[in-house]
């Protein structure tokens, strides 16, 4: 697992301000049938996410980009659920495009 992907899951539950810094200003995040463009929309999207925990099950590569499969548990309908995090465009420091899918 790349360091950036590890930080994504670690910071998501421990330090949201540091977590937001993982995203480029013009980031695109796809989740639950919606597309969030830019860091302001990512902040708004995250504010609607309940407190959850992540257990990364696997990290693989598809079409040249990493995909992390994680179990997510929390106070939401259908919990726990396994989701796939497609890190479509990342560099060493920032996420530029992330698609979260079942």
TrEMBL record:
Chain ranges of the SnoaL-like domain: 6-95
Coiled coil regions in record: none
Database matches in Pfam families: SnoaL_2
Origin: domain of life: Bacteria
InterPro entries: NTF2-like_dom_sf, SnoaL-like
This protein's name: Nuclear transport factor 2 family protein
